[in-house]
Design a protein that fits this description.
The protein has ten helices and 17 strands. It has about 400 residues and is of the alpha/beta class. It has a nine-stranded mixed sheet with strand order 8-9-10-7-11-12-13-17-14. The chain has a six-stranded parallel sheet with strand order 3-2-1-4-5-6, with helices on both faces. Strands 15-16 form a two-stranded antiparallel sheet. The longest helix has 22 residues, at about 365-389.
């Protein structure tokens, strides 16, 4: 009886898009007790592995009464039609990023969600990564002052992306900033309540058909400056992603597009430095009283030194701060990239399930978040492609 009750309480999940990523989703989500994967759909009949009900036509999956929640993991230009059809069929949806490839399609998804009342979320899994969660917490509570700057450097390999891959067709993918950079745009959007007031983009073509390097910059109304460089042009040996967060009193270097580890240097008040502990598995390498920290920002003989310096006061962004120590530390999730990826995906799915079960539950990632990051990517892309011509 207990097993039957558990099965009845599970939410039936259907996957549209059952290629490599779809199979990874199924593997991850099979461990989530709140759901049961009931069906999958893919245009490639060879994707049918016999594990669950298989549909060659995604529309047939939407007619399956055993499916209450649909995950859409198909090329981006198809997201809007599938998501809207699913919600009109009474299914909740979890949409792979980006939300869509045009502003009109994003608005269409939002409109149908309001009309149907279905739960709809977007797969911004980085919001569920402990390192990103710490950066969002610091940005909200300002233990190290305001966040002033975020940079993203992303070097991806193109060896698994032949010229014929849909990734390179901006009518299908939206281009690098829409298909890929939206993840990191959303990370930064989560660090501020301010809207972008200036967005710029640039790009370099590999040839007349393929743009493989793109750059974007954003200034937010609160003065936060963000820039990102994304290149799908290097050997896999050099594939790496780094993020840098610069607060008035701390700078954080994060490594991995799924953040796994990094380092932090911060000026703290010994009476209140608990915020550092929000970083996972923090390992303090050195804690130095500020009175013992030298300032070599200018060479010897440059100007006249203050004869009565206060080593417990520092100035940043025009503000004076009382601090006592400089902390140098490192942090790490201490798990593999695959496990970190899977943990975030499972947390995301559980958040969606909670919203389905309780109207009072507030999604951690909403369609508005998807639309906001898409807007930034579209504006930067338009500016970048204009600069190419």
């Amino acid at each position: 009886m207990g097993a039957e009750t558990e099965s009845r309480n599970q939410i039936g999940l259907g996957l549209i898009g059952y290629g490599g990523f779809g199979k990874f989703l199924r593997k991850c989500w099979s461990s989530v007790d709140e759901v049961e994967i009931r069906a999958v759909s893919d245009v490639n009949p060879d994707a049918d592995d016999g594990a669950v009900m298989f549909y060659a036509d995604w529309r047939a999956l939407l007619s399956d009464p055993a499916v209450q929640l649909v995950s859409i993991a198909t090329p981006p230009s198809s997201h809007a039609d599938m998501a809207c059809a699913a919600m009109r069929a009474g299914k909740h949806v979890l949409i792979e990023k980006p939300l869509a490839t045009t502003r009109a399609d994003a608005v269409r998804i939002q409109k149908v969600q309001r009309q149907t009342g279905c739960v709809a979320a977007i797969d911004y899994l980085l919001r569920f990564n402990p390192v990103v969660e710490a950066m969002h917490a610091w940005s909200a509570s300002s233990p190290f002052g305001p966040l002033r700057r975020v940079t993203v450097e992303n070097y991806a390999q193109d060896e698994s992306l032949p010229n014929s891959h849909w990734f390179w067709d901006k009518d299908v993918s939206g281009g690098i900033l829409v298909e890929h950079a939206v993840h990191f745009i959303d990370v930064v959007n989560g660090c501020t309540s301010s809207a972008p007031v200036r967005i710029r983009g640039d790009a370099v073509r590999r040839d007349k058909h393929l743009t493989d390097r793109m750059l974007l910059s954003v200034r937010y109304a609160d003065g936060l400056l963000m820039s990102q460089y994304h290149a799908f042009s290097r050997p896999g040996f050099f594939e790496e992603t780094t993020l840098r967060f610069v607060f008035d009193l701390a700078q954080v270097e994060v490594r991995g597009w799924i953040p796994l580890e990094g380092s932090v240097r911060a000026l703290v008040d010994r009476r209140d430095d608990d915020a550092l502990g929000q970083l996972p598995n923090l390992d303090i390498i050195q804690s130095t009283p500020l009175t013992e920290v030298g300032d070599d920002s200018r060479p010897d003989g440059w100007g006249v030194a203050d004869s009565t310096p206060s080593r417990h006061q520092v100035q940043s962004g025009g503000q004076m701060y009382e601090v006592t120590d400089r902390i140098d530390a490192r942090f790490s999730l201490n798990i593999s990239k695959s496990d970190a990826y899977a943990n975030a995906l499972c947390a995301l799915l559980k958040d969606v399930v909670a919203a389905i079960r309780s109207p009072d539950h507030r999604l951690r990632v909403t369609l508005d978040d998807g639309a906001a990051s898409l807007d930034t990517a579209l504006i930067a892309s338009a500016d970048a492609w204009h600069s190419e011509s």
